[in-house]
Design brief:
Number of strands: 15
Helix content: 25-40%
Strand order of the largest sheet: 3-2-1-4-8-7
Structural class: alpha/beta
Strand content: 15-25%
Oligomer: single chain
């Protein structure tokens, strides 16, 4: 780096601590990523061997310190903002919920403070629908903030695929309601612990395959008549009959599950345009399912969570935006240094 290049000081440690995955970013004063960490140390793994709230909190603190120690040592006192299942009732510390309808800007006013050695961690609350059909989300709210921060317009429906997929209804920056589908978790259980797991010889790929499309078509044609559980079993006789390859089972099952989720969600809450915010591993499959349902899909970049955490940190006063320097090449003659 040139001596006169602007220094990129670290301004925030941002954590997205999900059920199965831990993600962390070291951000500079513009919200740009300086470094990142991703591991399988999700909240479920961290908490599974603890038998009390105190032991659980200690386990989360130790995992955080271990995974982020180089950043914390190099930047003592750096603020830390955390979202996800670390703020659940079986996480680091319960961070509560905002009840919908709710403005996403209100998340910054309800942070839960947790001491962690020489650091202080601020945990973002989740969102809760306390109506006749209650629902909760924790972690996806920061993805929503990030999606809206980078969007050219304001979508009315955002789909967030994951272990527990979320279908979120928006009015500007206001969350008016949402629905959860356990699609990702069901897929994991079926492909690990069911009879279907014995048939499958491969995992789903990042792109929608012909076997996935076959699952979509089967669910669309027979889902109402036969039901999802009956259709899932069809993978077995299809393999036995030589009409479905063992390497195609995972994609076929994924097609049935995602097809059922998307078709029923659109039936309950029709949408012409949907913003899709998820990892590359599921993006193409959800896009295909949505487009087959007659929906126009707008893809939101994968790192919506880190953008959302940065936005919340700014709103909460945990970080301040560093002005970007104007390159010397665009300065006027009067502005050029002598």
């Amino acid at each position: 780096m040139a001596d006169d290049a602007p220094r990129r000081d670290a301004a925030l440690v941002a954590l997205d601590w999900g059920t199965t995955t831990f993600r962390a970013w070291l951000l500079d004063g513009t919200g740009s990523v300086l470094d990142s960490v991703r591991t399988a140390d999700g909240a479920l793994t961290v908490s599974e061997r603890t038998d009390s709230a105190r032991a659980r909190a200690a386990a989360f603190e130790a995992t955080f310190a271990w995974l982020c120690r180089p950043w914390l040592d190099e930047h003592p006192g750096i603020p830390v903002l955390c979202a996800g299942m670390a703020g659940s009732n079986h996480g680091w510390a319960e961070a509560g919920y905002l009840d919908v309808p709710a403005e996403l800007s209100g998340l910054a006013d309800r942070l839960t403070v947790v001491p962690a050695g020489d650091s202080v961690v601020h945990i973002v609350p989740g969102l809760r629908d306390a109506g006749p059909d209650p629902d909760v989300m924790r972690g996806e709210e920061v993805q929503l903030v990030g999606a809206l921060a980078t969007a050219a317009d304001r979508p009315e429906t955002v789909v967030l695929p994951g272990t527990h997929s979320k279908w979120v209804r928006l009015d500007g920056d206001r969350v008016t309601g949402f629905t959860t589908a356990m699609t990702g978790e069901l897929y994991g259980l079926l492909m690990r612990d069911s009879i279907l797991a014995r048939l499958a010889t491969g995992e789903v790929g990042p792109k929608a395959s012909a076997a996935f499309a076959r699952g979509l078509e089967a669910e669309a044609a027979h889902g109402d008549e036969r039901g999802l559980s009956a259709l899932l079993f069809t993978a077995r006789p299809l393999v036995l009959a030589g009409r479905l390859g063992s390497a195609e089972v995972a994609d076929y099952v994924s097609g049935l599950l995602i097809g059922a989720e998307v078709r029923h969600a659109l039936r309950g809450d029709p949408a012409a345009v949907v913003a899709l915010c998820g990892p590359p591993s599921t993006e193409d499959r959800y896009r295909l399912a949505l487009e087959r349902g007659g929906v126009s899909v707008r893809i939101v970049e994968e790192d919506a969570a880190v953008h959302g955490l940065w936005r919340i940190a700014l709103d909460a006063g945990l970080a301040s935006l560093t002005p970007t320097a104007t390159p010397a090449s665009v300065l006027t003659a009067e502005e050029q240094p002598s």
